[in-house]
Specification:
Elements (H helix, E strand, L loop, with lengths): L1 H25 L3 E10 L2 E9 L1 H24 L6 H20 L3 H19 L5 H27 L19 H17 L8 H4 L5 H7 L4 H12 L5 H22 L5 H21 L3 H28 L12 H4 L1 H15 L5 H15 L4 H27 L15 H25 L10 H4 L1 H21 L5 H11 L4 H25 L2 H17 L10 H17 L1
Antiparallel strand pairs: 1-2
Helix pairs in contact: 1-2, 2-3, 2-8, 2-12, 2-17, 3-4, 4-5, 5-6, 6-9, 8-12, 9-11, 9-12, 10-11, 10-16, 11-12, 11-16, 12-14, 12-15, 12-17, 14-16, 14-17, 15-17, 16-19
Family: Belongs to the complex I subunit 5 family.
Membrane topology: Multi-pass membrane protein
Main location: mitochondrion
């Protein structure tokens, strides 16, 4: 089954890539309308929008999905329900297709809710308490955005249809359209895990690693960014300022949190959150095309980074703590090479795929006139990205070997390596190819010398700080203040506590009070139970239901006597 779906997705990916190139060169857009029914003069139609953006994104999603399915063949080898897992992944990809292809809110909702439902099933795939909690947190956080989406659908009834692509340019200052845009921003914030809905993203790491690779690169978390890219024409300046502030804060918070995290998959999840903040920040600065460019380059290297992490976790007997790793370059050379290349792309090291989009984003931000806060937070976030990437490299690849003496760490997973090797060339070369495709005229950005080299300077500072911080934190003695501070930063500014205990604590406490007072307390004793005992004593007719023959005979005799008397 893995090979069937894998090859099918791979062929579809190549077809869609060639189509997107053709559409881009010829500046073509195709709209296909499939009529459903008409209700109250409103048409329910399924619209398929084929342009270079939807086709290119679909080809990237399909290619990553095919590699992930090949990778799952070996990763999920011992699983008794492997075919069910593969089918759920395929459903997940098809939900994303629904979302990408349609500019109609009703049909986007099919994919949007499909992503939410299937992601819940995949997060709780390994059935234990931690997975159930993570799945519930993921599902309920996303439901907030789904409610906003449904409200937007209701408000769009005012326009007589749900195909928002027809209304974006004409209804720019319309009050109803501004409200719909606000609801769309809320929906995108929950799906892309922006503050204060960030806590579900690291929790979703309870899913199997192939799912994490797919979710965190090109499907679930990017759905919100893609929706806002489509909606970007009608976002007012107030919306953009709000989005910029939230996204920049998310970017900073997740970069800071990743430097204090020790779980390998959670570090990579927080780096995804940081990159999502970067995409939405540049989108809020008015560069939606650039946000899309970073979306597709990020999808490639993040998918491979999770695959490498999965291979490392497998080799270390399902150990995810980076403090147990070290010196893996000797045991897993190819995996470590791939992992390092992905880390370089994530940091924006020149001529890797991430560099072309990330450097362009930072230079466009430097060129725009906004304020010192945005300028500083962008560069600090870049420094933090490099710091946690090099900290991860130090702990897992360079540092001393800290795992058990009795181990079987070797590069033996050939099928997984083939799946990973399919992506490595794209990670290295596709950034420049996409750059040539999307920007046929090269973007010339002229800045003063110090502003121009600021990115490179922050990368070097982050590199040094990440390596030094790793050595420092290994030998660092914790006192109470430092422990509190580190746990505050490592727990994403206490956001998981706020979004779980902070939301439900009062309701659970009131429920306990209610149970103690009513169900198990004096009110029950003097109320329902007392009434029951009193009635039981007053009406002693329990004897009738004891099935004694003499009772029935006596009742029959009384009945006959009653009939004779009448």
């Amino acid at each position: 089954m893995c090979y069937i779906f894998g090859f099918m997705f791979l062929i579809l990916s190549l077809i869609m890539f060639s189509l997107s190139f053709s559409f881009l060169m010829n500046d073509m857009v195709n709209l296909i309308e499939i009529w459903g029914l008409t209700l109250n003069s409103t048409n329910f139609v399924y619209i398929i929008l084929l342009d270079w953006m939807s086709l290119l994104f679909m080809s990237v999603v399909m290619f990553i999905s095919s590699m992930v399915i090949f990778y799952s063949e070996e990763y999920m080898m011992g699983d008794l329900t492997k075919n069910r897992f593969i089918l759920m992944v395929v459903m997940f990809v098809f939900s994303m297709m629904f979302m990408i292809l349609s500019p109609n809110l009703i049909s986007i909702l099919l994919g949007w809710d499909g992503l939410g439902l299937v992601s819940y099933c995949l997060v709780i795939y390994y059935q234990n308490v931690k997975s159930y909690n993570a799945g519930m947190l993921t599902a309920l956080s996303n439901r907030i955005g789904d409610v906003a989406f449904l409200m937007a659908i209701a408000w769009m009834m005012n326009f007589g249809g749900w195909s928002f692509i027809y209304y974006l340019d004409f209804l720019y200052n319309d009050e109803i359209m501004m409200l719909i845009s606000s609801l769309m921003i809320l929906a995108a914030m929950t799906k892309s895990a922006q503050m204060p809905f960030s806590s579900w993203l690291p929790a979703a790491m309870a899913a199997p690693t192939p799912v994490s690779s797919l979710v965190h690169s090109s499907t679930l978390v990017t759905a919100g960014v893609y929706l806002l890219i489509r909606f970007s024409n009608c976002l007012s300046s107030m919306h953009l300022y709000f989005l910029l502030f939230i996204a920049s804060l998310t970017m900073f918070m997740s970069g800071l949190g990743a430097n204090f995290e020790y779980d390998l998959k959670k570090i990579i999840a927080l780096s995804t959150l940081s990159q999502l903040g970067l995409m939405l920040s540049i989108l809020a600065l008015g560069e939606s095309k650039l946000a899309f460019f970073h979306l597709i380059t990020h999808a490639l290297f993040k998918a491979l980074l999770f695959m490498c992490a999965g291979n490392v976790i497998h080799s270390l007997g399902n150990c995810q703590d980076i403090r147990f790793m070290g010196g893996l370059i000797k045991h897993l050379p190819l995996t470590c090479i791939y992992m390092n290349i992905c880390n370089w792309a994530l940091c924006g090291i020149p001529f890797m795929s991430g560099f072309y989009s990330k450097d362009l984003i930072v230079e466009v931000m430097s060129m725009s006139v906004l304020n010192v806060y945005i300028y500083l937070i962008f560069y600090i976030s870049i420094g933090l990205t490099v710091a946690y990437s090099f900290r991860l490299s130090y702990y897992s690849l360079i540092g001393s070997f800290n795992f058990l003496s009795l181990n079987m760490i070797k590069e033996s997973s050939l099928i997984m390596l083939k799946g990973m090797s399919g992506l490595i060339l794209l990670v290295v070369f596709m950034g420049s190819c996409f750059n040539w495709m999307l920007y046929s005229t090269p973007m010339l950005i002229i800045l003063p010398f110090y502003m121009k080299i600021m990115t490179l300077l922050m990368v070097l500072i982050g590199m040094f700080w990440g390596l030094e911080f790793s050595k420092f934190s290994l030998t660092y003695k914790m006192n109470f203040f430092n422990l509190t501070f580190v746990s505050f930063l490592g727990l994403m500014w206490n956001m998981p506590m706020i979004s779980t205990l902070g939301v439900n604590f009062n309701f659970l406490k009131m429920g306990k009070v209610y149970m103690k007072t009513f169900d198990q307390g004096w009110i029950e004793y003097y109320g329902s139970k007392s009434l029951f005992i009193l009635l039981k004593k007053m009406l002693n007719i329990q004897i009738i239901s004891m099935n004694h023959l003499k009772i029935f005979m006596m009742l029959l005799f009384i009945w006959f006597m009653f009939l004779l008397l009448i």
